[in-house]
Each structure stands twice: as structure tokens, then as C-alpha cells.
Amino acid sequence: MRPVLTRRRFVAGSAAALAALGSRRGAHARGGVVTKRTRLVMLATGGGPRPRTERGNTAHALVVDNVLYLVDCGSGVARQLVLAGIPLPTLRHIFITHHHSDHNLDYGNVIMQAWVSGLRTRVDAWGPPPLEKMTRLYFEMNAYDIDTRIADEGRVPLVPLVHAHELSQAGPVMQDERVKVTATLVDHPPVVPALAFRFDCPDRSIVFSGDTNKSDALARLATGADLLVHEALWVAAVDRLVARVPNAATLKKHIIDSHTSVEDAARVAAAAGVKTLVLSHLVPADDPAITEQMWIDAARLHFKGEIIVARDGMEL
Ligand SMILES: [Zn+2]
Fold it and tell me: How many CA atoms lie within 13 A of 289 on its CB side?
């Protein structure tokens, strides 16, 4: 629910009281109604590329003043946006943390689906190399459909709308009138580079870990942030998870070496001094033996702030 003030309460409130409300709830006044400027929607919250009934492949949406900033594009992201009531043509920026398919599989598709839904404005995409090549090849692969729709449906040319920017190092990424985005390098072997992003929005600051093992660089990036969205691994369940696949031994080593246990995610949140830890990109994503309360209890041992276990579609 969005916080709503009636006009009478709004008029009666002092400027100081409203300012306090705004900073506490991340709200601002618009025509007497107070709404949240920055919405965080957990579109899909599972780790790993397998399709599942629970927890889709990773995608998160930041909506600031009704403008969409998308962080990762796992399979199904466009439909998750529709289910969340976020209009696809509001897509303005895409951020890819790293090139594993559970984070980028629908990168081109979500742009295409925004375009067929009415997008006519610029989209900037930010992520590790070879993002420019991926963008070019995606449009080449889909040239027949794109050209047909321009001629047949009167759509604006898509390719000139999309601008890909490759990121390989820590530092400032972009800034506009709504957000300032900063990246750091995290450690997710063998994928290099792998990025975490911090968004300083008008009313709160939100950090996305991407995929990483326990990262001091991430803790520094997240220092003092309101929310840290951190990947989380339930180590004891890895054997059950990998038992289903033929490449079990190799997959187990990758998972342990390149991800963060829920306990360490909590330690990073504590080191950064964030207000809220949001556990997302859960691995395993669909093991009914691991309940939400178990994730929270494991994190609670190491972090005293608010802990949220993300679910697909959850708005924060
Ligand atoms: Zn990954």
C-alpha cells in the first residue's frame, strides 16, 4: 500500500511534520496526496537459470517518479513487470550485474516487448562487456520482426533508441534528475567483471549485490544505505540442489566459491550499517524444506536491522 494523506491532514500538517514524514516513509506531496517517489519491486527472486514455479530468474525494478530502472533481466521479466502493473514503455535504463543467463536472458526481449507495448523513447543499458555486441546481435537476430513492425504497424525504429554502455570498473555509472548510480566490482568467479550497483534515489538509497561471494567492496558501496538487496545461499542445501543434475561436483564448487551464505550476507549488511537487508536471488530457490523463517533466523544472528525475505512481486 502507498501511504496516503487526506487533503485535510495535508493542509493541517506543518512543513516540518511533512518533511519528517517524507524522510521516514520515502514520500512526497503531490496535489495533497503523499506518494512514495521510489518503488522497489522484487520482480523475480530466485538464483539459477532453471525455470521454476516458485521464484523466477533474477530481476528487480526501481520505479522513480514513474520512470523504470531495471536491474537484471532474467527470463520472464517483461511478464513480471506486467503482473506488477509497471507499464513497459516507462522503461528508461537497464542495468546488468553480470553475464550469467539468470540475469541477462531477457535483456533484449524486455526492450523488444517494451517497444511492441508502445515504447518510443530512449533506453540506456549498462553492464559488463560484451553488452554492446549482445545488443547489436540481438537486433540483428530480430531484424525481420523489427523491420516488419516498423513498416506494418507504424512503429518508430527501435535500434536508434537503444544505447549500450559497457562497464568494467568501479565508480560512478550515471546520474540524472532522479537517481545517481554507482558500481563496484564484486567477486563472482569465473565471471569477470561482476558488478554491484548502488542507487541513490530522492528518498532512499538501495544497493543490489548482484552475484558475489562475501565482499568487502560491496560493504563499502552499501555503507549507510537504506536497503541492501543481497543474494543468499543456504549452504546446507547445496548437496540436495546439485543432486538433481549430472554436473553436480562442478556445480557445487561454483555455487560455494562464487556466492554468499545467508549468514555472510547478514555480516555484510551489518558491516555496511544498512537499515534493511532484503534477501533475494535465493539459492536454492525452491526447496520447501527451507522456510522464510529459517532464512530470517540465520541472518538474525549477525544483523540487528530489519530483514526481509523477498518474494516475486513484493513491493518495498
Ligand atoms: Zn551469477
Answer: 8
Cell of 132: 554492446
Task: State the Cα–Cα distance between residues 204 and 184, nearest whole angstrom.
Answer: 19
Distance 188 CA to ligand 1 centre (A): 7
- How does pLDDT run across 241-288, given as a tens digit for each residue? 888 888 888 888 888 899 999 999 999 999 999 999 999 999 999 889
Neighbours of ion ligand 1 (CB under 5 A): 100, 211
- Of 8, 10, 3, 39, the C-alpha closest to 24 is 3
Q: At what angle do helices 107-116 and 131-141 cross, to 10 degrees?
A: 50
Rounded to the nearest angstrom, the distance between the alpha carbon of 280 and the centre of ligand 1 is: 13
pTM of the model: 0.88
What is the whole-number distance in angstroms between the Cα of residue 17 and the centre of ligand 1? 44
Question: In angstroms, rounded to a whole number, what is the distance separating the alpha carbons of residues 294 and 97?
Answer: 27
How many angstroms separate the alpha carbon of residue 68 from the centre of ligand 1?
A: 23
Q: Tell me if residue 118 falls in helix, strand or coil.
A: coil
Can you say how many angstroms the Cα of residue 272 is from the centroid of all Cα atoms in its chain?
Answer: 19
Distance CA 46, CA 54 (A): 8
- Per the document, the length of the chain is 316
Give residue 296 CA to ligand 1 midpoint distance, Å.
23
Rounded Cα gap, residues 79 and 74, in angstroms? 11
Other C-beta atoms closer than 10 Å to the C-beta of 160 total 8
Structure-block grid coordinates of residue 101:
543467463
How remote is the CA of residue 39 from the centroid of ligand 1, in Å?
Answer: 25
Ligand 1 centre from 272 Cα, in Å? 22
